[in-house]
Amino acid sequence: MTIQLPDTSGSLRAYEPRREPLALTTGSPLTSRTVFSAAHVVADPFADTTPDSPAAIDWDATLAFRRHLWSHGLGVAEAMDTAQRGMGLDWAGAAELIRRSAAEAKAVGGRIACGVGTDQIAAGSLAEVRAAYEEQLALVEESGAQSILMASRALAAAAQGPEDYLEVYGHLLRQASEPVVLHWLGPMFDPALEGYWGSSDLDTATDTFLEVIAAHPDKVDGIKVSLLDAQREIDIRRRLPQGVRCYTGDDFNYPELIAGDEKGFSHALLGIFDPLGPLAAEAVRVLDTGDTAGFRELLDPTVELSRHLFQTPTRFYKTGVVFLAWLAGHQSHFTMVGGLQSARSLPHFARAYELADGLGLFPDPKLAEERMKNLLSLYGVNQ
Q1: Burial level of 279, CB count in 10 A (0-12/13-18/19+)?
Q2: Cβ atoms within 10 Å of 239's Cβ, excluding its own
Q3: How buried is residue 293: exposed, middle or buried, by Cβ count under 10 Å (0-12/13-18/19+)?
Q4: Mind listing the pLDDT tens digit for each residue in 23-43?
């Protein structure tokens, strides 16, 4: 049995889906690396909304997906850009998400870290940016979750140079009650963050970033670097103070960065570990035994799918993540907050399906095939 899939030339080609999924089960906690999956939110498909409306979330399905990730030993990075922060999920929705997910994490014993940003304001002075960060930091700490200080569009607009970043981040780190993760999100993920840390020159920006950490090493658990530049991440990793971790956010080069080298390795906080969750966890368990080659054997073949989902414009990778969650049966529909299901083309979806199916990511390949055929029929492709 085959399925006809469209390609970028407008032609249809036959693809034969696999019949059995990859055999993956829940297992023991991960030990050699700390691994977070940045999780997506499930929209409420029956809500009467528009792209400009506040997000309507299916809370049951959203929390069920987090339990799925925890069951495989992964941590959940909550209310990050994968959850459509700044792309459909406003601060009110993110705050509710943080409260609910943190409570669920406590109930099941799952690890959770939550994004702290400034998205309750569109723009403002440095004082207003600080206040926005403080409000979100307080909520995350009150929830009992670890804080991830996210890059701020408002700070990028208000800051006049590196000294403003040093002042704002220094103020926040002094206030934080527990060590936080600092997140450097590159402009490929959010164009409004161009010139973050006070310079578009990455070497200069890196120096400022590291200056913030060096001044407060006891308040920084780690950093998440999302620049899609493996060598730059390695260089930054080697310059970190003792005890400060690097969590890779590089969805193009994660296997080699997590595996590491003779001078160190990266932990992980990745959007691609939303669809790859069980497989990623299995790979890290292999790495826990010291088998780096076995780890790479499992994870290297997933990079082609990740590079496909994160292709330019990279910020729309969330569409592919939710699409695969639907095909995998984690949600009953392919509807997204803000109507973002329209952000990728049919050939893009077809290739994502083919790559994910080839990896054995779908627990029920037949269900995935049926849902893919349903989507194709909506576009006029009859089988």
Answers
A1: buried
A2: 15
A3: exposed
A4: 887 878 999 999 999 999 999
Model confidence over 364-382: pLDDT tens digits? Answer: 999 999 999 999 999 999 8
The answer to whether the peptide bond before residue 313 is cis (omega within 30 degrees of 0) is yes
**pTM greater than 0.90 (yes/no):** yes
Q: How far apart are CA 202 and CA 232, in angstroms?
A: 9
The span from the CA of 157 to the CA of 135, in Å, is 19
Which two structure tokens, joined as six digits, stand for 285? 């368990």
Using DSSP bridges, classify how beta strands 12-15 and 3-6 pair: parallel, antiparallel or unpaired: antiparallel
Q: Which ranges constitute the DSSP H helices of the chain? A: 59-71, 91-108, 126-143, 153-158, 162-175, 202-215, 230-238, 254-259, 277-288, 292-299, 303-309, 317-327, 346-359, 365-378
Measured CA to CA, the distance from residue 15 to residue 8 in angstroms comes to 15
| Cα distances (angstroms) measured from residue 349 to each of 53, 274, 342 | 26, 17, 11
The 10s digit of each residue's pLDDT in 144-196 is: 999 999 999 999 999 999 999 999 999 999 999 999 999 999 999 999 999 99
The β-bridge relationship of strands 146-149 and 112-116 is: parallel
Q: Determine the pLDDT at residue 23.
A: 86
**Two tokens, residue 335:** 């509807």
Cα distances (angstroms) measured from residue 240 to each of 174, 212, 222, 256, 288: 19, 11, 9, 19, 23
C-alpha span between 296 and 275 (Å, rounded): 18
CA 32 to chain centre: 21
**Is-contact 41 25, C-beta < 8 A?**
no
* Distance (Å, whole) CA 208 – CA 201: 11
Tell me how far apart the alpha carbons of residues 119 and 221 are, in angstroms, rounded to a whole number.
23
Crossing angle of the two packed helices 230-238 and 202-215, in degrees rounded to 10: 30
Question: Per this entry, what is the length of the chain?
Answer: 383
| Bridge partners, residue 115, by sequence | 148
